[in-house]
Amino acid sequence: xxxxxxxxxxxxxxxxxxxxxxxxxxxxxxxxxxxxxxxxxxxxxxxxxxxxxxxxxxxxxxxxxxxxxxxxxxxxxxxxxxxxxxxxxxxxxxxxxxxxxxxxxxxxxxxxxxxxxxxxxxxxxxxxxxxxxxxxxxxxxxxxxxxxxxxxxxxxxxxxxxxxxxxxxxxxxxxxxxxxxxxxxxxxxxxxxxxxxxxxxxxxxxxxxxxxxxxxxxxxxxxxxxxxxxxxxxxxxxxxxxxxxxxxxxxxxxxxxxxxxxxxxxxxxxxxxxxxxxxxx
Length: 281
Hints:
Layout: E1 4-6, H1 12-18, E2 24-30, H2 35-50, E3 55-61, H3 66-71, E4 79-84, E5 87-93, H4 98-108, H5 112-125, H6 129-142, H7 147-159, H8 163-170, H9 180-195, H10 199-210, H11 215-227, H12 231-244, H13 251-261, H14 267-280
Parallel strand pairs: 1-3, 2-3
Antiparallel strand pairs: 2-4, 4-5
Organism: Paraglaciecola algarum
Domain Thioredoxin: 1-110
Protein name: Tetratricopeptide repeat protein
């Protein structure tokens, strides 16, 4: 349902000043029995109802509320004025198509990706990259050109062990957007790659070269790689163990733990979930 309110002198301040601080107020000036007003009214109501999270649909009966009508400088009907923070933003007079009205509204209303980005930014601030990731992925799909979304997504990817996708995303960031966050992500990638070159991992890799069929070494190396945020390499290795012996040690448990630790929406999660389910069932 749309947020429809009829403006009167009694609620004028509430709607035009207070409500417009948090939402855009669409003020529709109309007159009963005036055909252009009657034609526009149902279309406006339908459109406004789709944007009710961010829009208040306010109506002014120009015959009954002449003072308010004059205050807005309305000279013809129907007239629509968009108000934000108590100030007129935009508007139109006379008949309009549905497309024209939607185009006008979307210039001034928050976009879906803005809400997703804001939610994700709050989660990242709280250190919850797991929950932030799917929101950022959706926001990136809606607005693939936005550098702020790409940077926060890349940051989340690094934190969740998706080093290669994060590096690929950073390559698309233009010079003008290579800010402090961009440099911070590069630093995190460097640390992650250094961790993957730790003495423990190098020693296990050397052992595996000497014993390429050792399921025990493969399992141990997979665990170490996962801890070093080398998630895809770890999953590939642990799956190679399960392909040889589904019940080897704790390999199955490690594989499921690694998969379940991935955030929803991560392509690796669905890829390796399918692989392990095909082995289990």
